Amino acid sequence: MRVSSLVLVLFGAGGLAFSPVGSSPGRISLGQVANPNFKKPPLAVAVAKLYRKYNKTIPEGLANAVKRHSAKLPMNRMSNGTGTAAAIPGLDDVEYLTPISIGSPPQILPLDIDTGSSDLWVFSTMTPKSMVNGQTLYNPNASTTAKFMNGSSWWIFYGDGSDGRGSVYTDVVSFGNLSFPKQAVQVAEEVSASFTRDSSNSGLLGLGFSIGNTILPEAQPTFFDNINSSLELPVFTADLMHHAPGTYNFGYIDHTAYTGNISYSPVDESHSWWMFNMSGFAIGNETFHKVQLKSIADTGSSVMMMDTRLVKMYWAQVAGAKFSTDWWGYVYPCNATLPDLVLGTNTSHTQRDQPLRIPGALMEYGYADTKGQPGVCIGGLQDGPQFNLNIIGDTALKAAFVVHEKGPVGNSRIGFANKRVRL
Ligand SMILES: *[C@@H]1O[C@H](CO)[C@@H](O)[C@H](O)[C@H]1NC(C)=O
Ligand SMILES: *[C@@H]1O[C@H](CO)[C@@H](O)[C@H](O)[C@H]1NC(C)=O
Ligand SMILES: *[C@@H]1O[C@H](CO)[C@@H](O)[C@H](O)[C@H]1NC(C)=O
Ligand SMILES: *[C@@H]1O[C@H](CO)[C@@H](O)[C@H](O)[C@H]1NC(C)=O
Ligand SMILES: *[C@@H]1O[C@H](CO)[C@@H](O)[C@H](O)[C@H]1NC(C)=O
Ligand SMILES: *[C@@H]1O[C@H](CO)[C@@H](O)[C@H](O)[C@H]1NC(C)=O
Ligand SMILES: *[C@@H]1O[C@H](CO)[C@@H](O)[C@H](O)[C@H]1NC(C)=O
Ligand SMILES: *[C@@H]1O[C@H](CO)[C@@H](O)[C@H](O)[C@H]1NC(C)=O
Ligand SMILES: *[C@@H]1O[C@H](CO)[C@@H](O)[C@H](O)[C@H]1NC(C)=O
Ligand SMILES: *[C@@H]1O[C@H](CO)[C@@H](O)[C@H](O)[C@H]1NC(C)=O
Ligand SMILES: *[C@@H]1O[C@H](CO)[C@@H](O)[C@H](O)[C@H]1NC(C)=O
Questions:
Q1: How far is ligand 11, taken at its centre, from the CA of residue 44, in Å?
Q2: Tell me: the pLDDT tens digits for 381-407?
Q3: Would the pLDDT of 40 be above 60?
Q4: For the chain, what are the domain ranges?
Q5: 254-418: CATH homologous superfamily?
Q6: Residue of 278, 349, 350 to mutate, ligand 8, most atoms within 8 A of C-beta
Q7: Which of 77, 82, 84, 133 to mutate to test the pocket of ligand 3 (most atoms within 8 A of CB)?
């Protein structure tokens, strides 16, 4: 009873127009809900977060940009939306969260689903009050099924110089009506300021590979690995949207959600990440450059961080675009028309192989500054020379239908299809 009302809550709150409620056994459809009060962090803060997440040394210029821009960061208060500028439609997308049920009776927490990490961690009644800013808290004492995992702890790098850490419970976690009774739930005893700032977001739910889970002394399986055998197919799909809540489906592929064919690539399973090789790129309708791009699909990254040559070639096509050391990223005049970016999503180049086309209108991160520099926008494609990796973040994922398929060990794969993107 509780469970089916959860499904109604989820879809009533935002996902209704996008996907049918998953109601057959082994199939679950989860809709995101918008967090309209979210204020996007400055680019430097978002980029520094990626450096931390991928364990890269933060360059001095970036560290300085973070200091300059963090000083004026507002708190994301649900109730207070002061200081917003008139928005050009199509820019400054909000954040989307997914309500997840934990405990008995169910406690519903809005979480950020992150395919780039493997921890399920939440703000809780054990999080120091000074680090809580209106978040919905998980209270293990109020759940009859919560069990303390004595001796287990977790520690994870996220965000702006600080980290997250805490202890671990096991409890019932449910996606729609699919439950796992002993899911490791990591309760935060310390969180970084960027998480504190975001009052609507109660934590992360990682859908990476369990090998990257940070629980010590023993890593624990992700929710997906715990439920995979109950699913019709061992897959989940991510269908993020531009200026609309997206959908995560578990156990099936909704063939009405994409166009053309799905192009699959094998995945390297030795990290948290869904890591694969892209086969090249094209800018706008120019020639396709065949080049191997080691890539990671990461719904937890709002921008794309890619190969220097590709990024330079892309922004060279936009009059007035330049690298700004102040913002620590490429900026461009907001009235410019951005070219599409085409990415080769399969290395085989068969006739069926279909590259992903990201419409130019999606290639933005948002306004640089609503006061100082009117008309300056920040690109959604940035250069990450230290990464040696291409982080395929939300900029691209909003244009794609992505299939994450867990095969027998060594046989997992990731599939990309194009879809009708509503701009
Ligand atoms: C989910 O609910 C549907 C319809 O209520 C039911 O048919 C299905 O068996 C349930 N699935 C699970 C895994 O309990
Ligand atoms: C991070 O990178 C450093 C070297 O740059 C390495 O020594 C360390 O083990 C890495 N940490 C993790 C958690 O991968
Ligand atoms: C919102 O914040 C502003 C600036 O801090 C403050 O002046 C105002 O009273 C707040 N409004 C509400 C409704 O809390
Ligand atoms: C649970 O209750 C006990 C006893 O009242 C208290 O010491 C503990 O801090 C509580 N734990 C949480 C997570 O709130
Ligand atoms: C955890 O285990 C230690 C050592 O066995 C024990 O002293 C402690 O009381 C336990 N803590 C809880 C909360 O069960
Ligand atoms: C589910 O995941 C576990 C852990 O990765 C794996 O051992 C198992 O083979 C998977 N089952 C299916 C059906 O994919
Ligand atoms: C999809 O694949 C099928 C079978 O390989 C092929 O016949 C068809 O042309 C492909 N569709 C597109 C849009 O490329
Ligand atoms: C993609 O690559 C894999 C392995 O390299 C291959 O088996 C597959 O047929 C390719 N094409 C598509 C459309 O998935
Ligand atoms: C990507 O290509 C490199 C070099 O060809 C290869 O060693 C690696 O295994 C590939 N990665 C995946 C996930 O297939
Ligand atoms: C580029 O190609 C796409 C798809 O074929 C087409 O819709 C579009 O009009 C072309 N754009 C330009 C600027 O030629
Ligand atoms: C953008 O605005 C600037 C300043 O108003 C103007 O000079 C420029 O021509 C505009 N560019 C486009 C592409 O409309």
A1: 26
A2: 999 888 899 999 999 999 999 999 998
A3: yes
A4: 254-418
A5: Acid Proteases (2.40.70.10)
A6: 350
A7: 82
Cβ proximity of 61 and 396 under 8 Å: no
Per DSSP, what are the bridge partners of residue 155?
Answer: 165
Structure tokens at 180: 């796992």
* Structural contact between residues 330 and 378, judged by C-beta atoms closer than 8 angstroms: yes
Q: Is 393 exposed, middle or buried (0-12, 13-18, 19+ CB in 10 A)?
A: buried
**For the packed helices 43-53 and 60-70, what is the interaxial angle rounded to 10 degrees?**
130
Q: How far apart are CA 259 and CA 182, in angstroms?
A: 38
Which atom belonging to ligand 8 lies closest to the Cα atom of 264? 14
Whole-angstrom CA distances from 218 to 4, 136, 152, 186, 282 are 34, 28, 8, 13, 44
Q: What is the predicted pLDDT for the residue at 175?
A: 83
Per-residue pLDDT for 17 more than 70?
no
